[in-house]
Amino acid sequence: MNTPLLELRAVDYAYRAEHPILQNVNLCLSAGERLALTGANGSGKTTLLHLIVGLCKPTRGQIIAFGKLRQTEADFWEVRIKAGLVFQDADDQLFCPTVAEDIAFGLFNLGKTTHEVERITQETLDILGISDYAGRITHHLSGGEKRLVALATVLAMQPDILLLDEPTTGLDEQAQARVVQILQGLPQAMLIVSHDRDFLQQLTGNVMRINPCST
Ligand SMILES: Nc1ncnc2c1ncn2[C@@H]1O[C@H](COP(=O)(O)OP(=O)(O)OP(=O)(O)O)[C@@H](O)[C@H]1O
């Protein structure tokens, strides 16, 4: 059997000791598998994605990613290259003056040449149907436009796992349909957080519900 790409074993998390957010979360994601995470507002879905990429550390339990137990910042630095997180708030993702620079940033960090970066950037924009966005000022984009660009920054990196936090929030029908079509065609494993049942149903029947902790 294939080793899972990602495993969470008995993970607990609390921002403040007296207020647990996640308790005994177990999860397993294999190559090519898509898993939807649902649950009430505040149940800890975003927190779970942040734990996977090391933005917060479990108070108990283990995160095993790409075959290794991950604990240190160096461990999670490696995880973040292979697991791309699309943040719930696109403003947390986008920080460069222009759209092209935002997409190029991660690609240059991967050691791509300028020529490769330009090619991948334009290809990614084309796939998302936003070919003319390259020179636009990121700060001036609308909420839905930023969301598409945030997705572009992650898709361009071709990570092994896509961690998608409410990827369709604010998108119009046409953009949403395009995102569904793109995600359906991708081979990567995905963890998808969304409140949109129709959207999730188009991508996976594999659903895990996160229940709020009782304190
Ligand atoms: N940095 C933080 N410090 C303290 N508490 C936090 C922090 N971030 C989130 N929380 C709290 O943790 C809980 C879980 O938040 P989280 O964003 O993970 O939920 P969620 O399931 O993604 O919610 P939603 O569906 O509304 O996006 C909430 O009660 C939230 O207020």
List keywords for this structure.
215 residues, Rossmann fold, 9 strands, binds adenosine-5'-triphosphate, ATP hydrolysis activity, ATP-binding cassette domain-containing protein, ABC_transporter-like_CS, ABC_transporter-like_ATP-bd
Short description:
The protein has 215 residues and is an alpha/beta fold. The protein contains 7 helices and 9 strands; from the N terminus they run βββαββαβαααβαβαβ. It has a domain at 36-54 and 83-209: P-loop containing nucleotide triphosphate hydrolases (Rossmann fold, 3-Layer(aba) Sandwich), CATH 3.40.50.
Sequence of strands across the biggest β-sheet: 6-7-8-3-9
Biggest β-sheet strands, sense, barrel: 5 strands, parallel
What is the CATH top level name of the domain at 36-54 and 83-209?
Alpha Beta
Shape: globular
How large is the count of helical segments?
Answer: 7
Hetero ligands: adenosine-5'-triphosphate
Pattern of helices and strands: EEEHEEHEHHHEHEHE
* Uncertain stretches of 5 or more adjacent residues: none
Distance between the termini: 39 Å
Report the portion of residues in β strands: 15-25%
CATH topology of the domain at 36-54 and 83-209: Rossmann fold
Give the total of beta strands: 9
What is the CATH homologous superfamily assignment of the domain at 36-54 and 83-209? P-loop containing nucleotide triphosphate hydrolases
Structural class: alpha/beta
InterPro entries: AAA+_ATPase (IPR003593), ABC_transporter-like_ATP-bd (IPR003439), ABC_transporter-like_CS (IPR017871), ABC_transpr_CbiO/EcfA_su (IPR015856), ECF_ABC_transporter_ATP-bd (IPR050095), P-loop_NTPase (IPR027417)
Domain ABC transporter: 6-215
GO molecular function: ATP binding; ATP hydrolysis activity; ATPase-coupled transmembrane transporter activity
Family: Belongs to the ABC transporter superfamily.
